[in-house]
Design brief:
This protein has helices at 40-59, 62-78, 80-91, 95-115, 154-165, 179-191, 206-219, 231-243, 266-278, 298-311, 329-339, 386-389, 405-413, 428-437, 476-479, and strands at residues 3-5, 8-9, 12-13, 18-24, 27-37, 122-125, 131-139, 142-146, 169-173, 199-201, 224-228, 249-251, 256-260, 288-294, 347-348, 376-379, 396-402, 420-424, 442-445, 480-488. It is an alpha/beta fold and 512 residues long. The strands form 5 sheets. The protein has a 7-stranded mixed β-sheet, sandwiched between helices. The longest helix is centred in the first third of the chain and has 21 residues, at 95-115. Bound molecules: 2-aminohexanedioic acid. 2-aminohexanedioic acid is lined by residues 150-151, 155, 228, 284-286, 450-452. The site of 2-aminohexanedioic acid has 10 residues, from loops.
Length: 512
């Protein structure tokens, strides 16, 4: 029996206008949840309910809100197995990774529960006597958060936890194909004692969500939009929020480069490239796009990388595998489209390509009817190829070569994304020169492009985002607005810049 789930707004189940079936990508005939979808009007109504609830929530002292975040962390930790199993069942993420994903929620709670006792403002000296200056962080109001399903619980927590801690109310619209995981996480959050309406979950398709957002922004019931997804949709959300004089928090795609220097430890680089490219079946926004390898080590690297990929275990995500199936049929269809970008000058060095089936098996694994795909390494990609320039969400990695580090940096930046990047080198000079030159918001040295820790700034530039950053203390600027206060207790009107004491220097003074 699959679950039946619907939107919850103001603590009550909301009306549905359509139904969506969230299925198990390892066994697509298995329905994980029947999801009642809401329309644009229901989305806008959720934003009104959130606005109503936010006033009281903002009055709850921040340390008390921090205690609620602490409870959320405990509840999530105590439910790790169930939540991780559900994530694996619904999106096919290998179980060890699903547990890591749940761990990331707990880490985020651990970080922000303390922030409830900081959330520092400042005292600032005034240019006049008997006057004090202060800064305060105020909550923005209502945050509408729209998230992808490749990290169905960890990435949403990056928005929800700090937004709630800062005194905002949230309307969360998760991906339909990860609805059951999202609903389970929502239940854990509300069990921590959040008042009704402070966190709302709305299941809706993309079009209805966008129209709902338009309505809510027009009504003035949304003050911050958080979005994780494609650059294409991110651009639309950026335009919409820009028209309302808001800047969204955008976490978009990536074409993440990995540079391999001739002085690198090649086996370490192979291990990093394997996980970066094919862990999570290449479906992280931080997944490796193109390996940019020095021409002197190209042959040795490609030979070892291809072997490692051929030997990697793809299969049932409940088992110990490098990767399971793709997230959902929509992603499988899109991935098949990327495979048509292969050109005659490309060389597939990893073996078979396409869906794993009885006719196209991977060793003795015939795909079991699931959305499993062969991991693909394409040697010989060139600047200008679609495979080089565009994000290919899924298990495909390109390889190209360079001669000088400057050339490698140029190649790394060429696609115009700027999320994550990596360099393998044993020379600190190379690592720092790469860091300076690369356009990415995140740089790994001797490590995978993926796997950022939950308390460093996460986000990108260019086609990867608008410069907004999530996680750690940096995300506080997304969910609070600075308020400056001045308090004059001199008993008279002191005019800034005019009634200011002046100490006159002798600027003609010179040493004899
Ligand atoms: C994403 O794919 O949207 O850094 C986020 C990482 C993960 C998060 C990925 N912690 O790879």
């Amino acid at each position: 029996m699959s679950r039946q789930i619907v939107s919850v707004v103001g603590g009550k189940e909301a009306a549905t206008t359509a139904t969506y079936e969230s299925t198990n990508p390892a066994r697509p005939s298995e329905v994980v949840a029947e999801v009642g979808l809401a329309d644009a009007g229901a989305f806008a109504a959720a934003c009104r309910a959130a606005k109503e609830a936010q006033r009281e929530w903002a009055r709850v002292p921040a340390p008390v809100r921090g205690r609620v975040i602490a409870s959320i962390g405990r509840l999530v930790e105590a439910n790790t197995d169930r939540l991780a199993r559900l994530v694996t069942e619904e999106i096919g993420k290998p179980y060890a990774e699903s547990r890591g994903e749940v761990r990331e929620i707990v880490d985020t709670c651990d970080f922000f529960l303390g922030e409830g006792r900081r959330l520092y403002g400042q005292t600032v000296p005034s240019e006049m006597p008997d006057k004090n200056l202060f800064t305060f962080r105020n909550p923005v109001g209502v945050a509408a958060v729209v998230t992808a399903g490749n990290f169905p619980v960890a990435v949403p927590s990056w928005y929800l936890v700090p937004a709630l801690l800062c005194g905002n109310a949230v309307v969360w619209k998760p991906a339909e194909y990860a609805a059951a995981s999202a609903h389970a996480m929502f239940q854990l959050f509300t069990a921590a004692g959040l008042p009704d309406g402070v966190l709302n979950i709305v299941f809706a398709d993309g079009a209805e969500t966008f129209r709902g957002l338009e309505l809510a922004l027009d009504e003035g019931t949304v003050h911050k939009v958080g979005f994780t997804g494609s650059s294409e949709v991110g651009r639309k959300i950026g335009e919409l929020t820009g028209r309302h004089l808001q800047s969204a928090c955008l976490e978009l795609g990536g074409k993440n480069p990995m540079v391999i220097m001739p002085d690198s430890e090649l086996d370490l680089a192979v291990e990093g490239a394997l996980f970066a490219g094919f862990g999570t079946a290449g479906q992280r926004c931080t997944s490796l796009g193109t390996v940019i390898v020095h021409e002197s080590v190209h042959d040795a690297f490609v030979e070892r990388f291809a072997r490692a990929v051929r030997e990697a275990r793809i299969g049932d995500p409940a088992q110990d595998v490098l990767a399971g199936p793709l997230l959902d049929q929509k992603f499988a269809d899109r991935y098949e489209e990327y495979l048509t970008w292969l050109q005659p000058h490309h060389k597939v060095v990893s073996g078979n390509i396409g869906k794993i089936t009885k006719d196209n098996p991977r060793g003795d694994f015939d795909g079991d009817g699931g959305l499993y795909y062969h991991p693909v390494v394409v040697d010989g990609v060139k600047p200008g190829d679609r495979l080089f320039m565009e994000e290919t969400f899924g298990p495909i990695v390109g390889v190209t070569t360079f001669r000088t580090l400057d050339e490698a940096v140029e190649l790394a930046n060429l696609p115009g994304y700027g999320l994550s990047s990596s360099i393998y080198t044993t020379d600190p000079k190379h690592a720092f020169r790469f860091r300076e030159g690369v356009s990415a918001g995140m740089v790994s040295v001797n490590n995978s492009t993926s796997g950022a820790e939950a308390h460093l700034p996460f986000g990108g530039n260019g086609k990867s985002g608008n410069g907004s950053r999530q996680s750690g203390m940096w995300v506080l600027d997304q969910f609070t607005r600075w308020q400056a206060m001045n308090w004059d207790h001199s008993g008279r009107l002191q005019k800034a810049q005019m009634d200011v004491a002046e100490i006159v220097p002798d600027l003609d003074f010179r040493l004899s």
